Amino acid sequence: MKPSTNPLRRLLAVALAASLTGPALAFDLDSDTPITVSADRARLDDGKGVATYTGSVELVQGQTRLTADQVMLYRSVEGLNRIEANGTPARYQQPVTNGEGETDARALHITWSAADKQLTFEREAEIEQNGNLFRGDVIHYDTEQRVVTAQGSEDTGSGPGRVEMVIQPRSGTDSTQ
């Protein structure tokens, strides 16, 4: 990685974080709303604290939704602490706070970590909200600090994968006030 690209990546991360409005992208373990899971098959290993769901898996908490081909839930004595989802792609959706639009994120692998307060979207990662788009090989979202960082894929000989971002202009009504 060239040192001159670091400031650009930081600027892109700040711009994306500013464009993502609404609550932290994550399931809320402090909520009174339960997380509901449905799937074609389920396996619970109580000794290891791991539940594996396969086949059209859907996790829902309120209006927050995660769909995938396979989802693994990890529990400790404190409760649910990690969710891993795999799909073609796995998809995470959540409405924005002001009720206008939703965050729609997709990746082949999505991980949510309660301890790190972070969502990670890996391989073919894409986050879209109200026309704003962010793509990269890996996108990390710190749900507490509301900081997004992303990286492109390695150069495989067909050209380096790069982070891509599209930010929509403000509407005409916003710019006149």
From TrEMBL:
UniProt domain Organic solvent tolerance-like N-terminal: residue ranges: 37-145
Organism of this sequence: Marinobacter adhaerens
Signal sequence range: 1-26
Protein name, as recorded: Lipopolysaccharide export system protein LptA
Cell compartments where the protein resides: Periplasm
Region (Disordered), start-end ranges: 150-177
CC annotations in GO: cell outer membrane; outer membrane-bounded periplasmic space
Molecular function in Gene Ontology: glycolipid transfer activity; lipopolysaccharide binding
